[in-house]
Amino acid sequence: xxxxxxxxxxxxxxxxxxxxxGVLLRGPSGAGKSALALALLSTSRNRLFFFxxxxxxxxxxxxxxxRLVARGVAGFxxxxxxxxxGVIRVPHEREAVIRLVVDLPGRQGPAPARLPDEGELLTExxxxxxxxxxxxxxxxxxxxxxxxxxVLENKT
Length: 156
Description:
This protein is an alpha+beta fold. It is 19% helix and 38% strand. Helix 1 crosses helix 2. The model has no long low-confidence stretch (mean pLDDT 91).
């Protein structure tokens, strides 16, 4: 595993760019972060949005000028695991400014609140407050991706 660069913090997460929006996907191993990233790629292509992978499974983040910047692990640019196929290559970018954090509870985790309170719609990373979305595990990755894109469209 690659060492954390000076000034950065490591997270177990996947990061993507959808249009100009960086999206950080968090969750335990097996929660579906990579599958959701690939669903966002497919949905973005169908809607003619720009999409790029920043990094899969391990992300470095730092606070910079009041924004959360994410970067993938050097040497793994554009590589993501597709279960049953192994590692595949997708379009990638080196860094992204994170505008939305998506939490995947995993198979064993509790489902998110049906009507979340205001505090559940934000999360804090490195002292920065960011919009947060907890996806419903019963939805498949394509439906989750559609919800994420709808949230991004309503935020811009």
